[in-house]
Amino acid sequence: MTSKWLPRVLPERLSPIPQVIRAMSSEFRPPNLALTTVGLSLATFMQVLDTTIANVSLPTIAGNLGVSVNQSTWVITSFAVSMAISLPLTGFLTRRFGEVKLFIWSTLLFSIASFLCGIAQSMPMLILFRAIQGAVAGPMYPVTQSLLISIYPPAKRGMALALLAMVTVVAPIAGPILGGWITDNYSWPWIFFINVPIGIFASSVVANQMRLRVDTTTRPKIDYVGLVTLIVGVGALQIVLDKGNDEDWFNSQFIVVTSIVSAVALAVFLIWELTDEHPIVDLKLLRHHNFRTGTIALVLAYAAFFAIGLLVPQWLQRNLGYTSTWAGFAAAPLGILPVMLTFIVGKYAARTDMRLLASCAFLVMGATCFMRANFFLEIDFWHVAGVQLLQGLGVALFFMPVTTILLSDLLPSEIAAGGGLATFLRTLGASFSASLTTFLWDHRAIVHHAHLSEHITPYDSSPQAALQAVGISGQASNAMLDQMITQQGFQMSFNEVFHMLGWIFFSLVVVVWLARPPFAAKAGPGADH
Fold first, then answer.
1. Residue 31 contacts by C-beta under 8 Å, 6 or more apart in sequence?
2. What angle do CA 295, 300, 303 make, to 5 degrees?
3. Is the pTM value of this prediction over 0.90?
4. Which pLDDT score, from 0 to 100, does residue 388 have?
């Protein structure tokens, strides 16, 4: 009786056990790998998209909510500050809640915050909800990176990173175009409402597909000193970087005071985190050689890349008279080659030295910077778009190799924390880049304007004669001359900045060769069990 009963009943009673064992092993794979990848990638696309989608809508938002355009820039600043603070907390949050839960709740809360942004009736409300949106957005990218690595077999992890790199490149390009189109054809709240179905779908898919994945969680002691100094230091620094140009930098008492607060808080934060037994941000991750080298390359390269993405659209609108939509179209070819080459790079990159791929990326991006250094005011659309297209080749070879290098010598349990720290430093580098690039472009334009003006005096009749020949004289001719000099000054400054960016990319070839093989991204914490 017993011998007949056991074979029939045990498979039914114990059938879930092999699934649980597989979930706890390093070989855990979701039932549908492709669907899980789509869910993870969509959430990242949504989060990265929101860093740029509101930029072109600020004038409309300001008008509808009855504030000045300068006040509306806090919509961008509040998001950036909150995200910069929460990014380095990723490691602490994954230890406390687990990667899967952190991803699901971050994505759901991001959707809720997006909805609240869309129904905001005043600027303070919108700024508050954007701050919440940025706070929950911080862990999304590094956790997605860690989860993708953990669910793919070692031979295909390069492809997973390449896919994430493609999303990282395409989303910021699509943001201004999509934001402008939605604002012009519908209304600005829809730039936030579109996140709601995407976030619900992504979190539902990942929750369903990864429900059997087991994450080990702990209750780490909360480092209150580190947390407070991080919030104050990074928050103040981000405000300085975002508002410095508008406030005329250190000629503003507000910028001076905020800078001092940031410097003191960050100094205390660094000393405390390096000496505390349970730091909220594990700066000791920088002890790993490849993580340190790869992060330096990532931060500097991304800062230069961000400067390109910032300058080109502004130059097209300010100097060449493009609309925001056409400026977006001219910049858009940057995303074509990364999309086309993602799976090729991901499939075959493992057979190549990652340093070689990264070097090719830096050389291509440096070369395109030198091409832009020779741009002029009469250049046509297709030349601008062609250089953007060529730069896409460098971008396709950039993110995946550098990310693989910096993750290669981290322990599996350090992947999420390392990804969060690297992404935080990358974001901070982009903020520095935005402020310094804008300052240099404006400052050098003023210098060139002064030098060019020296050669046009009231006693030099040739410029005035040329304008009089087409029917322009008197004050109108003087105003037009000043406008022409201003345009030339900005063009010369634009060329100088890109010449500098070209040399930065070329110098990074040396940096990336300081990394030591082997380069292989390890699975995250879920693989340890």
1. 209
2. 120
3. no
4. 92
